[in-house]
């Protein structure tokens, strides 16, 4: 069964990808096999996604990250938490982040 | 999160990176000795090997390329897998977040390298050159015993591990009767979404080896034969021609560089010299990376180089005024390869361009395109449907069959 993201959990980028910031875009380049469906597929994050990604530092919990974002973005706490959990679920599914025990 | 195919536009909201792609020739040495190849030094050439960049130096160049936003590097040669430190260089590029394209003959894809490519994929299909469908034809080209078996074994290892690759060929006397078989076999490769590219009009060596040039001249097809091969699938040829003519419409005039060479796509040779493309090695277009940087070359050296104008009188009288630019492979790189200049007309490519224009009905008899006054009118009267009929009618073209192995013996202006 796939792990689900949790607000009390802490995550960091996995060793199976390389994240690069180029011309203001955050590009995630798979390093190992099976992350993308296509052999030449890269991934990019929108502005909100970039704000979340930069905070996935292996120290802050997702709840803390959502709290920080609440200061910068419109929307209620529930909505922001939902966005954070949704993105991290997607990143977990693609092995782009790992949980820090 | 957005998934992005790197071959599609749309990744960049504010314009692309300063450097989008880098070619690195890891070695000039090759374990094959192909008749038509312009670069292969012997695998055991110790003098060449000692001059090659170290893995650490390649790493420095890759680091600077990554800092300029480069997302893709192509390792070519010679045969890049000849290098003992290929795995180290490959992994370094991948860990910098680059896609890696590899040009190889597949003979050195042993289990270890195939396993690596399966575990850490290059994220670009390998490009494999295969010069014959049988041991006899393949080794007549590579002039290397047992190379066919090794290449096919390398290909099998990639297939077993589902490592994506595409195949490319070359039209040569030894394999002239195998084109259709090659294309049929290529269709069975899971990652081939179009017919394999086929090198037809081979360029000379330009590295001071006249004997090699004699060999290349002896195997490159005559213009009529070459054009027959080029147009063997009229629909595909006309489609490519439409795209190519859109990009290269109009006369060159005095400009030397009309492609993107030296703009955001540059090449490093095996010894650490930076070139505007893989072919142009003229001393005045080569940048010494030891005393500089990729950024300096992109910002200063190559822009100045691209302003150069042609001075060769023959070029100015012919190429600069010629409307066949879209058909002709003359460029500074090919001029350099053929005669060691940047602006020398390449008679072989000139003849090939004229043969194409004739089979398309744009030129007649002994006409030379640069002398045609009513070119616009001729283009207005051009019918793709008529051209297709001409191409589909071998009698009308009066050209040899694919199996003929007539090679090019001509001199300037087809004399």
Q: How is this structure best described in words?
A:
The complex is a heterodimer of chains A (101) and B (415). Chain A has helices at 47-55, 62-72, 77-93; strands at residues 10-13, 17-22, 25-30, 41-44, 97-100. Chain A has 101 residues and is α+β, with helices and mostly antiparallel strands. Chain A has one domain (10-96): Arc Repressor Mutant, subunit A (Orthogonal Bundle), CATH 1.10.10.1150. In chain A, the strands form two sheets. Chain A has a three-stranded antiparallel beta sheet with strand order 2-3-4, with no helix packed on it. A two-stranded antiparallel ribbon of chain A has the order 1-5. In chain A, a hairpin with a 2-residue loop joins strand 2 (17-22) and strand 3. In chain A, helix 2 crosses helix 3 (77-93). Chain A is globular and about 40 Å long. Chain B is of the alpha/beta class. Chain B folds into two domains: 21-221 and 259-266, TIM Barrel (Alpha-Beta Barrel); 222-256 and 311-415, no CATH class. Helix content of chain B is 39%, strand content 11%. Chain B has helices at 46-51, 55-67, 86-95, 111-119, 135-142, 147-161, 179-187, 210-219, 223-230, 234-247, 294-306, 313-317, 332-339, 347-359, 375-380, 384-392, 394-397; strands at residues 2-5, 21-25, 29-30, 41-42, 72-76, 99-104, 126-129, 165-170, 198-199, 265-268, 273-275, 287-288. In chain B, the strands form two sheets. In chain B, strands 9-8-7-6-5-2-10-11-12 form a nine-stranded mixed beta sheet, with helices on one face. In chain B, helix 4 links the parallel strand 6 and strand 7. In chain B, helix 2 (55-67) packs parallel to helix 3 (86-95) and helix 4 packs parallel to helix 6 (147-161). The longest helix of chain B is centred in the middle third of the chain and has 15 residues, at 147-161. The chains are: A alpha+beta (101), B alpha/beta (415). The A-B interface holds A 18-20, 22-25, 27-33, 36-46, 49, 87, 90-91 and B 1-7, 11-17, 66, 69, 71, 94-99, 118-121, 123-125, 164, 191.
